[in-house]
Amino acid sequence: MKSSxxxxxxxxxxxxxxxxxxxxxxxxxxVGQSVARLMLDLAPGELELVAxxxxxxxRKRVDWVPASVRWTDDIADLxxxxxxxxxxxxxxxxxxxEWIRRALEAGKSVVTANKQVIAHAGPALxxxxxxxxxxxxxxxxxxxxxxxxxxxxxxxxxxxxxRVAGILNGTCNYILSRMERDGVGFRNALAEAQALGFAExxxxxxxxxxxxxxKLAILAHVALHAHVAAAGIQSRRIDTIDAVDFQxxxxxGCTIRQIAWAERTDDPGTIRAAVGPALVPLGSPLASVxxxxxxVMLRGQYGGETTFGGLGAGGEPTAVxxxxxxxAIAREAGPHVTRAAAVRAEVTSEFESPFYIRFTVxxxxxxxxxxxxxxxxxxxxxxxxxxxxxxxxxxxxxxxSLDPAxxxxxxxxMREIAAFDFHxxxxxxxxxxxxxxxxxxxxx
Length: 444
Hints:
By secondary structure, this protein is an alpha/beta fold. The protein has helices spanning 30-42, 96-105, 115-132, 148-155, 170-182, 186-195, 204-207, 210-224, 243-251, 315-331, 367-377, 407-417, and strands at 21-26, 47-53, 70-72, 85-88, 109-112, 136-137, 161-167, 226-227, 234-235, 254-264, 270-281, 293-300, 304-311, 343-344, 346-348, 352-361, 382-386, 396-406, 423-431. The strands form four sheets. Strands 7, 9, 10, 11, 12, 13 and 15 form a seven-stranded mixed sheet that branches. Strand 4, helix 2 (96-105) and strand 5 (109-112) form a beta-alpha-beta unit. It is elongated.
């Protein structure tokens, strides 16, 4: 064939211009400002900041935001055609949940760091997004800058996850690791956390476990496909822990952390979950998490253990998670991939493990025998009794470590024990979560 007979090769198609995603931020506090700064500093071609909404907007204006950005105190201004994605960072359930719903109904995608809204209304909002053909992303709602939600949805999509466990509250972890490292009391460690900005003036959401409770409900939804009510997850407070508990925990090869965990049971309609302080063996990744860091451990039926860790709080780590969600929306091609459907599930906090019980008593003969008799009545076996010297008779702490027992049996025994008159401080019962060590057995 002569060259003149050949058809001319087709020209490559012209590249389509990149459409910039027009972003509006609702809530211009610490995280909102960090998101705006990050968006302007990185200047990704896919994103354009077009509006900022906040109450009392005049006091929020800053000169480093371009003049092209609209400032408003009315959420309705973010629902017009010139906005593609609303970033909700106002916090709390009201009016955040309503704002997110209105944005989705207006056809906007939403990125949020709001754990309470996602924990309580996440499934309904995901359904609203699916109906509108938009997206809801919430990486920043769990573990701050640790990209665990995306890792579950993409990196571990080929496995069947059976358990999620971790340290999800940086405030509690700062307090407990500070008590462990320097032997300071709970109140002093809390005051330090507040002075450093790790804890609110009212730290009850953190201390009582409600913050971690909401985050665990989200992780159960994403990892275990179980929709559970956050309030149905048992939570126990950490302010019962004393510096002496770390001394005793160290004697049995453990430390103490606030642990949130959820796992499948044989019943697909039930998951086992709880939040609270627990002993973890020093060989566990959980034991090495210090300060305000977070860590999430995932167990898959086929892939085994996978661990993710990093900064769990603060403006910049949270802003990184928000930015990652925005870029994911901007770069998604084709139809939206719906998350695997979650099954509505009940929660049980019943589990079996070894237990650590610390008593603080006005010492007198017969206390150990009295306690042993109660434990025997509930078919609970004592492993060891630990007592450090140097404490006064009128306020003497000691520890009873117990062989694996059901949590309900421990609760029944502790209710009976609480009635005795030798207690100077209410007893503290903590599970020993040795099963959270990859490949590990019971702590010794």
